[in-house]
Amino acid sequence: MSKYRIQKHPILEIPDRTAVSFTWNGKKLIGFDGEMIASALFANGIHIFGHHHKDNSPQGIFCANGQCSQCMVMADGLPVKSCMTPLRDKMVVQSVEGLPTIPDENRIPQTGEIPVKEVDVLIIGGGPAGLSAAIELGKRGIETLIVDDKDRLGGKLVLQTHKFFGSVKDSHAGTRGFEIGKILQDELLTLGSAEVWLNTTALAVFSDQVVGLIKDNQYKKIRPKKLLVATGAREKMLSFPGNTLPGVYGAGAFQTLVNRDLVKSAEKVLIVGGGNVGLIAGYHAIQADIAVVALIEALPQVGGYKVHADKLKRLGVPIYTSHTVVSANGAERVESVTIAQLDENWHVMPDTHKTFEVDTVLIAVGLAEVNEFYLKARQFGMDAFCAGDAQEIAEASAAMFTGRIEGHKIAQSLNIDIEPTPDEWDAKATILKSKPGRPTRRPPPSKEDGVFPIFHCYQEVPCNPCTSVCPVGAVRTQDDKITGLPYMDDLDACTGCASCVAVCPGLSVTMVDFREDPSHPLVTLPYEVWREKVKVGQQVPLTDIDGAVLGFFPVEKVRSRKKYPGTLLVQLKVPKAVAKSAAGIWVQEKQIEPSTIYEKEPPPDEAIVCRCERVSAGEIRAIIRNGIRDLNQIKALTRAGMGACGSKTCRPMIWRIFQEEGIALKDVTDRVDRPLFIEVPIGVFAGSK
Known about the structure:
Elements: E1 19-24, E2 27-32, H1 37-43, E3 50-51, E4 58-59, E5 72-75, E6 78-81, E7 91-94, E8 96-97, E9 116-124, H2 128-138, E10 144-147, H3 168-171, H4 177-191, E11 194-197, E12 200-205, E13 211-215, E14 218-229, E15 233-235, E16 248-250, H5 251-260, E17 268-272, H6 276-287, E18 291-297, H7 306-315, E19 319-321, E20 323-329, E21 336-341, E22 354-356, E23 360-363, E24 367-369, H8 372-379, E25 384-386, H9 396-413, H10 423-432, E26 451-455, H11 465-469, E27 475-477, E28 486-488, H12 499-503, E29 509-513, E30 522-527, E31 539-543, E32 549-561, E33 564-573, H13 576-579, E34 584-585, E35 608-610, E36 615-616, H14 617-625, H15 631-638, H16 650-660
Parallel strand pairs: 1-7, 3-8, 9-10, 9-14, 10-11, 14-25, 16-23, 17-18, 17-23, 18-19
Antiparallel strand pairs: 1-2, 3-4, 5-6, 5-7, 12-13, 13-14, 15-24, 20-21, 21-22, 26-29, 27-28, 29-30, 30-33, 31-32, 31-34, 32-33, 35-36
Helix pairs in contact: 2-4, 2-9, 5-6, 6-7, 9-10
């Protein structure tokens, strides 16, 4: 078994898969049947998939979601996206060196006119929003076709090993994301009124209100009465020298490799971005036995939930706020990354540079709605709806609820005799989309006898599963609001069951038990990473909420609740003085320090803005300074935005350069959208496979 395969995981089961052989540039390798080619290459230690025809720059994975073409390879003689193409036995895979050679002729004859399939509702996207909408429609027997470009339903839920926030009733709070995906899928299939097309990519919406799809490499036409776009979001990118080196990619791509495909894609990573996506990716890295050298955030504070940041601190991950990435360094792939501190005007402060030796830089600086299908459908007069991140970027718990709301609205628009959408649904959706409040530290209870929980939860976020699992109903939130901070209104009522410890998505509840030894109470901590670190009798470093080590103490007992098998309840006997401060166990024994190498940052104009056509920030900036205010002219002059991805990555970066140059965006003409949102061989439209 390759050392790059994850062979044990604290949360995920390792499935049985069929090994197959394939060749990479003539060399025989082993992969798993049906896994994506990109994952099979990573599992064999291969990160460079070819070199660009313009400047011979190394090319590798970037989005792992079919949104770009950075991972293109030749498979059995055809250029394909390796992140979206399943591996088959004896497949011949080659790197793309320069421009790929296109086959001389179409080897499969065309099949004639493509019939149009009529459906009541077409849902594009089988993630949390699309599934929730399909369930709402299925409850009313409405004929629905749900399509997704992956090999399974669930969308980003498939990648999430952590327990979800929100409420138990409305968003399965306290349940892990991949488990929620299966719950929703099973509920949908049980209803029996939805047709599911997997491995199906939506290509375009046309003026005759037909949606073009490619399913298993065959072109399909769908004319729906109603269209729901639940296509999620794509990751934003930053402009810095070295930003296209293999090893620099989005957090979503990382989670795909690690959590879906069980590939250990890195040894040491640095994460750029302190929102929930970056914080959660750091936690997932540690679960996969990948060292996180640091997480950096340009703002003075992390933008994600404090409990996510606290989890990383307790595990030994340093978080640098008011810092930015200066450059990724390396010849063919990432070998190190340089960061620096920002002043109050967002300028890099001299002599604050730090260089870390890493092989991967994860970019998690925000998401952009994948809403082009919705906008084009509305332009062509279709009765179109939008849900989830395609509607507004928020947490998956909110996506489930907005999907439910839009499903209800679609049913109403089909004149189904149902009650109006309840007003409280919109109110709940607004709460689930709400940003975290300001952290507020609270002193722990003064009680020093009996057993009771300590809530290390100091920030208002939409989350209350602890109130649902308490068997005596004593856990409450302030003002009984889902965003209220939790507390126990009667500490004497606590039975010590530790259900609140086990269910908490933020791992921010501990239990203190004074009953056996008041001077050395038993502390119960939630723990979800390396099992071998917490065997009974081992000395473990106990930390407070900020990651400060309180001391080393032996593990007394390790147990788990049947409903939450992935969360271990680790019990330690500790001095009374530190019992209420205990919040976690330090895992990364050796913190990776910056090297002594000082690297002056390369000129920022060297950064690549258009990955497909290798257009630099300096080229874009020069044109803007010459008076160009039209993205179409920039495209004509530089080819920026002309590549295979259709400017999905470079467009927002060009907008940002306009802003940096002091140009009001209202004075800039946007580029003309392509009729197709995803590139496809032209023969597909003639019925070729």
